[in-house]
Design a protein that fits this description.
Layout lengths: L1 H13 L4 H26 L5 H8 L3 H15 L3 H11 L1 H21 L3 H15 L2 H12 L5 H18 L2 H10 L1 H22 L4 H5 L12 H9 L2 H33 L3 H29 L3 H20 L5 H15 L1 H11 L6 H30 L4 E2 L2 E2 L3 H7 L2 H16 L11 H5 L2
Antiparallel strand pairs: 1-2
Length: about 450
């Protein structure tokens, strides 16, 4: 029954031929992508205020890494429930509520008197943010024909890069002018305005609009059966392992420890290091839609995924262990690192290839849980490794970590790309950009 509704929805998406229909689909998906951009600004924001947070909240590297990772402690386990809830209740209600939860977390983080409330604020941000990427991809899958999914996934990832860049270069200027507390509280106000826009404009599916409904009809298949269908597929686990490995270095390096590493290793100011780090997000932003387009062009998923992992091995090794690069080459290698990480967005194309329409939200949620698990694991792990290898030097009352300290702590990141290359080259099944489930399987849903 529900599969027939999904097919109707897909047929409606194919009929988006009028300018009005196409405009509605575009605006809806852009608003969903703006939430993804917003949550990325919140996600990476601690990277440009590490000194201020350690000073004002009395933190060291280990406690700072743990506090920042509270975002991922809620974000990661919420991916599965988020995917199931999207398949049940639809995007409009859930995205609106999720943005408001993010805004509340940002507000608490901005007024925090101690590390406990700051961690709780990050925890709330993670809960709300867990609905962003899944919601955007689900709306893309419903409002646009399937042949555009990989390319549009890359464009959604581009929005996350814009958010990450906004959370670094402009945020440094805002913090220098207004202070980190006022800046974060202002981000909370922005979230409330975005939630209002989403509630006003976004609709769950073309089918709901054509029937004059505000919300989608719930699926007939229960949550447990949908989850069992996703988890019983061996490819689900292999794609998740690749996604974890290709993105963990980004959550650890670009989202937290990269800027202080560049300051220590290349003698840059925080502002200059944030500008250099922005090249990573630029590479991700440009590389993600390019990876989707190239994958469709050559009719292959596994080859671009393997190439991305290989780029990651080379670029990140150079960044960490060859800190004598001229500034131009540093920018170029950081950009290449970003291009490597763009394989993460293409992995969601493989997810869609391997799952039917009525469980795509659950499947995306499962894979995104693996993507963000790297932040929960590696942000505090690197903080602990820094603390253990600390040379004992203090600067203005806070611990100073030098280049050797960082090199000892960051060795785990190139290993992630080696795992990603092995999985994509030897274990992942090539889908040739086509659905891998049979008509019999689809009709049974």
């Amino acid at each position: 029954m529900y599969n027939n509704e999904a097919i109707v929805s897909q047929n409606v998406s194919h009929s988006l031929t009028t300018k009005k229909q196409l405009l509605l689909a575009s605006v809806i998906c852009i608003l969903a992508a703006m939430f993804y951009m917003y949550e990325y600004t919140l996600q990476v924001s601690p990277a440009v205020m590490t000194n201020e947070l350690m000073r004002d909240l009395g933190l060291n590297a280990a406690s700072l890494g743990t506090m920042a990772a509270f975002y991922y402690y809620s974000y990661t386990p919420m991916q599965l429930p988020a995917g199931l809830l999207f398949d049940r209740f639809g995007p409009r209600r859930l995205i609106t509520l999720a943005i408001l939860v993010c805004a509340l977390g940002a507000f608490l983080f901005g007024i925090t008197p101690n590390a406990f409330m700051a961690s709780f604020g990050r925890f709330l941000m993670g809960i709300g943010s867990s609905f962003s990427f899944i919601g955007a991809l689900l709306l893309v899958s419903r409002w646009f024909p399937p042949q555009y999914f990989a390319l549009l996934t890359g464009l959604v990832q581009l929005m996350s890069s814009v958010g990450a860049i906004a959370g670094q270069v402009p945020l440094v200027a805002a913090i220098n002018h207004w202070g980190w507390r006022s800046t974060v509280v202002s981000l909370a106000i922005v979230g409330c305005l975005l939630a209002l826009l989403v509630w006003t404009v976004v609709r769950d599916s073309p089918e709901a609009v054509s029937k004059g409904h505000k919300f989608q009809s719930p699926p007939k298949k229960g949550e447990l059966k949908r989850l069992q269908q996703v988890c019983s597929n061996k490819q689900t686990w292999l794609i998740a392992l690749y996604s974890f490995s290709i993105w963990a270095p980004v959550t650890a390096f670009a989202a937290l420890w990269g800027i202080p590493f560049l300051v220590a290793s290349y003698s840059l100011t925080t502002a200059a290091a944030s500008e250099a780090s922005a090249m990573i997000w630029l590479g991700i932003g440009l590389g993600s839609p390019l990876a989707g387009w190239f994958s469709d062009k050559i009719n292959s998923r596994s080859k671009p995924l393997s190439f991305s992992a290989l780029l990651g091995i080379i670029s990140l090794t150079i960044i960490i262990y060859c800190p004598v690069l001229p500034l131009f080459w540093l920018y170029f290698i950081l950009f290449t690192f970003g291009l490597a990480a763009s394989g993460q967005s293409l992995a969601f194309g493989v997810v869609k290839d391997n799952n039917t329409s009525c469980v795509v939200g659950t499947a995306i949620g499962f894979n995104n849980m693996a993507v963000v698990a790297g932040g929960a694991l590696f942000q505090p792990l690197i903080g602990v490794l820094l603390y253990v290898n600390w040379s004992g030097i203090m600067h203005n009352g806070t611990p100073f970590y030098g280049i050797v300290d960082y090199q000892k702590a960051l060795f785990v990141l190139p290993l992630c790309y080696i795992i990603a290359f092995f999985v994509s080259h030897f274990l992942l099944r090539e889908t040739y950009c086509r659905p891998q489930y049979s008509n019999e399987t689809a009709s049974a849903i």
